[in-house]
Structure formats: structure tokens, C-alpha cells
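Justification of resources, computational component.

The compute hours requested in this renewal are based largely on the per-chain cost of generating structure records like the one below. Each record pairs the submitted sequence with a full C-alpha cell output. That output is archived, and it is also reused by downstream analysis tasks.
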Amino acid sequence: MSRNYGASNIFAEKELRDYLETRRQTVITSIENERDNYLLNVNDLDYVSYKAAEAKVEPLEIHIDQIYASSSEQMIPAEYFPSSFWVERGSSYKKDVIKFHIPISGNQELIKCAPSSRLVWSMPIQLGRDEFTFEIINFSDDVEKITREKDSNIQSIVKQLSNVTSEVTNYNNSIEIQIKNAFEARKKSF
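The structure output for this chain reads:
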């Protein structure tokens, strides 16, 4: 069982389409606000390429092959225990917690974004500088159960990442033409 206090939810904090639209709109607005003299004298191809590079989104990479684990004993609130345990509500009990560390690179903001096509799934994570972690509480010393839960989480992470990557790729593939159109429309306005 994973805990969710003090954490964010992977691929569920905000809509990816909103994040991408904000990126696109920021660059389009910067073109619309450009000085007339500057746009008249700029090399069209270089300007469009520069603005497209500014708008493109670097993909997120999750390095599943580099996962490692650590563990610690922690006080777990009774509310997190399975119903098969006799615990007193409002109390906490010491349990071993396995923390899985997964290195990441690229645009880490994407780990918070829910893709348009997605699993109805999320889980709590802690996001660090170059990794994120998730925890599984070891309630019954069942290594196979912990492994199954970890593998299930990893499988869902990989699927959601695939959905995010697909949406980002589509955005990146279409952004240059949108910028070119905005640039040409802006030049025609004066």
C-alpha cells in the first residue's frame, strides 16, 4: 500500500493539453507583440526556427532500468492499515517502508501532466531533482506481494509516459507550422 500524504500524484496534477497550449500561446503572443521594425528586417526562416525551438517541449524520460530501492522504519497511521489488522484509529504503528527511486531526465514538469488519452490511475510520488520516488508499506513481510505492487506501478507509469510522449510528439511536430502561420499573419498586419 502506498501513502499519499505530503506527495503529489504522478501524471495527474494538471492537464497536459493545457500545459502545451500555454507554451504555444506564450510564443504566439510574443510574435504578436514583436516590434514592426524588427519583423521587417529579420530573416523569416531563422526567426520561425528560433521561435519553434522556444515553443518545443523536451520529452520526459523515466529510466526504469535504473530503479533502486531503500527502506526505513516509519510510523504509519492506523488509517493506512488493511482491514485485516487490528489497529486503534488515531494511533500510528512502526512498519518497514520500501522506497523505490526512479531516475528521470528531460522536462520534469511533464510528470505532473495528465495526457488526453490516459489510464484512470495515479499514485503518490515525491519528486526530487533527478528522480521521483514512491513508497510501499511492508505490512506482512510478503516479498512477492511488494514485487507485484511495484511491477504494477511501473507498468502503469510506462503506459502513462507513453501517452504523454505521444501527445508531446504530436505537439512538437505541429508547432513550427503554427508559428510560421502566426509570423506570416503578423507581418501582413503592417
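DSSP finds four helices and eight strands in the chain. Strands lie at 8-9, 14-15, 60-62, 68-77, 92-106, 113-114, 124-127, 131-138.
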